[in-house]
Amino acid sequence: MNKAQPWKLCFLAIGLSALAAVQFGLFSQPAAQAISYSQFLQLLDQQKVSDLRIKHDRILGTLQEPIDGRSMFYTLRVDPWLSEKLGRSNVTFTAAAQSNTLANWVGWLIPLLMMLVLWYFLFRGVPKKQGLSGLMSVGKSRARVYIDRDIKVTFADVAGVDDVKEELTEIVSFLKNQAFYARLGAHVPKGILLVGPPGTGKTLVAKAIAGEAAVPFFSISGSEFVEMFVGVGAARVRDLFEQARRAAPCIIFIDELDALGKMRGIGSLGGNDEKEQTLNQLLAELDGFDPREGVVLLAATNRPEVLDPALLRAGRFDRQILIDRPDRKGRLAILKVHLHKIVYKNDLDCEHIAEITPGLTGADLANLVNEAAIVATRRASQWVELQDFTVAVERLVAGVERKGNVLREDERQVVAYHEMGHALAASSLPSMDPVHKVSIIPRAAGSLGYTLQRPTDDRFLISAQMLRDRIVVLMAGRAAESLAFGQVSTGAADDLGRATDIARQLITRFGMSVELGQAVLERQQATYLGEPLLRQAHKDYSEQTAREIDLGIRGLLEEAYTRAMRLLEQRRADLDAGARLLLARETITPEDFQALRPQAGEPITYHLVDVHR
Questions:
Q1: Where does 328-398 sit in CATH, by number?
Q2: Which residues of 231-261 are buried (b: 16+ CB within 10 A; e: fewer)?
Q3: pLDDT of residue 473 exceeding 90
Q4: What is the CATH number of domain 4-115?
Q5: Higher confidence at residue 428 or residue 131?
Q6: Which one from 394, 419, 481, 548 is the annotated catalytic residue?
Q7: What is the pLDDT of residues 487-497, one digit of tens each?
Q8: Which of 612 and 324 is assigned the larger pLDDT?
Q9: Which of the four pLDDT bands, split at 50, 70 and 90, describes residue 601?
Q10: Domain 409-526+541-596 CATH class label
């Protein structure tokens, strides 16, 4: 519960109590019997009344003999001379209450005003929290405007994307010196689309452009244009561009453009829904504004394949810039930027950290530096050292250690032989990355043990032999179990799944099967920036080809398993010694066990097995 809610409930109770007192105490009639003034005079003569309270227009008192079960009474006063005259005529008479309109209005207005005040103070934040605020301004843009003094990010804060900064430097130059570029009729591109995986720094690059140019920066997410009201998104697009024209030169940045600019006609029954109206308005605004006005439109997405083709044509988003995962040089530059935020040892080997973090984005590296600082703080160190980064990498890759998860002794032996099988197979194949660490400590990722391999450099191409060697390393865990215990366990389930995926891609996507030829039989169904979400359900090949694919996958897996068994049989002594050392220490490195170092010699040559055997 919110901390402010108990106070609000207390104020509500006090307000309702005060309202009840005002309504039912101050402005309510007393619970007394009303009698006529002539009857009062008779009772007075008979001395049947007491405790009289005489007011300006009425008399209140107590009856000695209750009437209708009530002893309290009240009566309206009559002028003395008139009452005396009426009494002599034996006529029953009473006074009529004068209508007090002002008092009646006050009696109703005060409670109403108190209710309105209570509602304002207690519930003024509820509509905003529930998304119901701003009904009168649904067509207004929610873009946040950052003036130049608020943006402290520059190109100096953006590392690892030197080629991207060169592309965007001319945009900054145009915003600073429009006359120089306009003298020959040139103009800046209308729209620039930043494409890349999540965490590569697309938003950071956009802010750096605004910071370098010192111009207003309009930032908004694509999802904020679309709401439940029809036409709201289009109105917000118009309002956003009107604000930008008044603030020119400026930059408009739309993050997550795919939420706004998805391909039209897909996933909807009609062609005139809210999202399509918003996209149509954006296309019209892109065609309508003059780039010489100094308005630059930046957008970012990690799903370019779902964008509408009309949005990407020339004259709208003229330029697409890919911000990919950084290479080793880029990772080193990014690490140096984030290392300024922590206290680290002077002899910290940043090159080594960049080597052991292939595939990490800028956001991942920032998280890595923070995790290393947390690890160093826990061990009460004065600064962050290389060992802290090693532990942080393991936590990011394999998860947090679950030291409280105690395995049975026989299970620990199976896991030790399984992981040592992976490690020895990787060290026996020259094309594989060197082994960095082997552990049988369970991790939060669901693994009972792990084998970390450290790549020596970035790879952009993978040969057929490297793919087959990877399958051998994956199958070596089960081969070690079979060799040591004569049976296998379920611990290799994940290894078998990954090995099968590699074998299928080797045959169906990469055309590396001698029997099936160079044809691509299955295409990757997803963005080129990420992994496929769904497998290709439609097969455009015959059942005979499908059977050959299945036989080819099985042949690759059987060959890899046979090779793994042969490698481990040749190194059986190392397998037993490494498993015993692993059971004793739980975690070992090549420095602890020399057999894990890469083995010298020529790589073993082999060929793809015949799929028709």
A1: 1.10.8.60
A2: ebbbbbbbbbbebbeebbbbbbbbbbbbbbb
A3: yes
A4: 3.30.720.210
A5: 428
A6: 419
A7: 998 888 889 99
A8: 324
A9: very low
A10: mainly alpha
User: 572 with 483: CB under 8 angstroms?
Assistant: yes
Enter the tokens of residue 325.
């995962």
pLDDT at 467: 92
336-361: per-residue pLDDT in tens? Answer: 888 888 888 888 888 888 888 888 88
CA nearest neighbour of 40 among 93, 81, 89, 85 = 93
CA atoms within 13 A on the CB side of 324: 10
Q: How long is the chain?
A: 613
Task: Quick: pLDDT tens for 521-540.
Answer: 887 654 444 444 444 456 77
Tokens of 370: 């923070």
User: Is the pLDDT at 116 greater than 70, yes or no?
Assistant: yes
Query: Which residues make Cβ contacts (< 8 Å) with residue 533, sequence separation at least 6?
Result: 525, 526
Could you confirm whether 419 is annotated as catalytic? yes
Q: Report how far residue 421's alpha carbon sits from residue 564's, in angstroms, rounded to the nearest whole number.
A: 8
Q: What is the DSSP letter of 293?
A: G
What are the sequence ranges of the domains in the chain?
A: 4-115, 144-322, 328-398, 409-526+541-596
Q: Are 575 and 420 in contact (CB under 8 A)?
A: yes
Please name every residue paired with 319 in a beta bridge, in sequence order, or none if there are none.
192
Neighbours of 508 (CB within 10 A): 23
Q: Which of 111, 96, 127, 103 has the alpha carbon at shortest distance from 34?
A: 96
Strand 191-195 and strand 317-322: pairing?
parallel
> Tokens 């490698």 label which residue?
567
Q: Round to whole Å and give the CA distance between 286 and 365.
A: 36
Class of domain 144-322: alpha beta
